[in-house]
Input
Amino acid sequence: MSSHTVEPSLPPTSKNLGSPLRDGELERTPHAPGPQLPLPRRLAELVDEHALTLLRATVGIVFVGFGVLKLFPSASPAEQLAVDAATKMTLGLVPETVLLLSLAALETAIGIGLIVGRSLLRPALVAFFLHMGGVFSTLFLLPDAMWQPHSPAPTMEGQYVVKNVVLVAVCMVVAANEWSRGYRSGRPDGAG
Output
């Protein structure tokens, strides 16, 4: 004779019951219609659902904006800084006009790749990280322009460069998600 043991079942969670969260709010389950969520909560869920797209697109917009600015003489506040750094990196072998147009095209292309995503995302991310290597190299290539004399504090131009750590962090999150997608979908347990 075989004996079957029935394990005690746990009581349903508050998520399944639609129990109050605070001040009469009810949490909905994805399968059962529930009361309308308040606007801040709906917005939070919408942002959470599209967070990676939002991050990717906003960095892309910033890059398109700054790239396009470099197409117009003296429109970009970072124009001379970018040209000076690129001139040092290319040992002065490339004319300034060519450098500026190349930077404009590169930044615009990175931005478009980030905004569009799909098959453009991975090349855009690679180009982004290579470009950021060049951007951060200005901290060492142009120390007089980047750092205040006799102080470890960056100048205004240095701050302009250092703030890019935020863009790097955003693109690291986007890249981690993008490059781990193949791993997640190929897992034998189906997780991910």
Residues 118-141 form the longest helix (24 residues).
